[in-house]
Amino acid sequence: MRQTMPVRLGPAEDTLIAQLTSVGASAEADRMTVAGLPTRRVESYHYTDLKTLLKTVPPLATPANQASAPALRVAGAYQLMIANGVVQGASTAPAGVIVGKSAGGVLTSRDDVLVHLNGALAREALTLTLESSVDPVIQIDRRCEGDAAHVADAVKIFVADNGSAVILETFSGSDAAHVGNHATYLALGKNAVVTHITVDLSAKASSHFASNEYSLAEGAKLRTVTIHAGAGLSRSQVFARFVGAGAHADFTGLNLVADGQHNDITIDIRHGVAHTTSQEMYKQIARGRSKAVFQGKIVVERDAQKTDAKMMMQGLMLSDEAEILSKPELEIYADDVVCGHGSTCGELDEDSMFYLMSRGIPKAEAETMLVRGFIAEVLDPIEDEALNEALNGIVDGWLLGK
Amino acid sequence: MTTPILEIRNLHARIEEREILKGVNLIIPPGEVHAVMGRNGSGKSTLSYVLAGKEDYEITEGEVLLDGENLLEMDPAERAAAGLFLAFQYPIEIPGVATMTFLKAAINAQRKARGEGELSTPDFMRAVKTAGTELNVDTDMLKRPLNVGFSGGEKKRAEVLQMALLQPKMCILDETDSGLDIDALQVVSKGVNALRAANRSMLVITHYQRLLNHIVPDVVHVFSDGRIVESGDKDLALQLEAKGYADFDGAAA
Hints:
The structure holds two protein chains of two kinds. Chain A has helices spanning about 10-20, 25-35, 50-55, 115-120, 350-355, 365-380, 385-400; strands at about 80-85, 85, 95-105, 125-130, 140-145, 150-160, 165-175, 180-190, 195-200, 205-215, 220-230, 235-240, 250-255, 260-270, 275-285, 290-300, 310-315, 325-330, 340-345. Chain A is an alpha/beta fold. Chain A has a ten-stranded mixed sheet with strand order 2-1-5-7-9-11-13-15-17-19, with helices on one face. A nine-stranded mixed sheet of chain A has the order 3-4-6-8-10-12-14-16-18, covered by helices on one side. In chain A, β1 and β2 (about 85) form a beta hairpin. In chain A, about 50% of the residues are buried. Chain B is an alpha/beta fold. Chain B has helices at about 45-50, 75-80, 100-115, 120-135, 140-145, 150-165, 180-195, 210-215, 235-245, 245-250, and strands spanning about 5-15, 20-30, 35-40, 60-65, 70, 85, 95-100, 145, 170-175, 200-205, 220-225, 225-230. The mean pLDDT of chain B is about 90. The chains are: A alpha/beta, B alpha/beta.
């Protein structure tokens, strides 16, 4: 007989259990009852103790009556919207794009509370099938609108063999204490080339959780950019699996963390077959009393010979009270691989500041220039000019304290 | 009497507990080029950093006037806008900031501080092109990140290019000859000489006389143990080169 030690449940967990029960997800409700939200004792949540950080959960979202202004406009982009979990009607899709809807739950199952909750609570998923090369940037505008709500939504994207696309997902909404739990599944066919950018611009009062899962077939090329510049509490998870030889991915991100915020980017990259490569480059900038977390895990499976993976985290502290945490992990089961990781953290370089100021550039402007320089590596590869400018604008806005 | 461009009176400065400048007195009238020579560690570079406003140093005594204005009350950016320019011995490499972007930001920041309008892009490009041609600085170099991967010669040419664009009243050249071969030295010196003007003064810091064959000073000062111990005309530099510093500061070379 197995004895279960019941955990003490808080108001957030009580609400989650009631919500899961109300949608008929009894197994998930039971799991929450037994385990509760993860604490620092759970390795993958060690730096983001949800039991402490997520104090309350608002009611499940109802369809939105109105939408706030778009958080980010990119000239020429094809716009799609999901508001409070409901896929909105869209204008005529550009050539090569098939837009549809399916029942919710897009991620493959894994032992992760955010994945479980999204699977149980997302009612429908926006589906995109990209049959060829798509010219305009595809923007999926994901909103939490109205009064504070617990929103679960989902997107599933298939990119056909030899297809290509630039996909931007923005997360925003009304200025309330929402909890957003978002899932995206993106499968790249053979030799598909995709850039996938996710930008959290939601209100500071809200909590933003996003899980992005990727599957890369033979010869596929993927670039991901995860940007946090919004919610007070956030965690973006990147789960990727290489399933075809010759595939390459650049996983990148900017974790911009302002006073009072706790933002976490956690990646789990699995090289499952031989001859695949990845480069991970994450930059974290923290100011005020704040916490930035990066957890980077690369797994090289037994058959994944000739894997080449390099991971880098660079942190920039703009205040003495900021905290930047970085946990790289390599798990290698093959014996003929090149894998490496590095992590650096520092303040703005004094000599560089002095040099810029000695040319007449005032302090605040010099700081902005250096921060822009620091993140250039992440944003420079975005070739679409309007998109690149929009992303730089987000960083500039963040620096100005917006 | 005309106001000197630079006037340093009894300047004392220290870094942590160590006093490095021990009472510097120096007056540079408009249009003059003064050289400061001294052995390594005598405090020459500290003088240039203190004048430009580097934070590491604490000024314990004395004052510095730039064209009559109290320099020590200004931050480095304000000093630059007031007309001070330091050509660095080791220009700082700044990845991610394109040289062109930096030049434009610097010029416009100074114009703004002086209440002038921003330079239009065509005017800016024209100014850069003109200044660049004389210093063999092409636009490809300006597209690269600031000083990153520049050779020693390229870095120094970029410094002089900045000086030419910013048109300062007072130029301080800190060991501008270090890291330069003879050809590069000639290009850089030619660039500096082209900037000599009746309303602009220069302070050339070096420990070799050779630079002063190219940039001929009006006055030479010998710097030792944190102060100026001897001043003379350009022949003083030749005497130094022949005899070493020992005759001037009493210590063994």
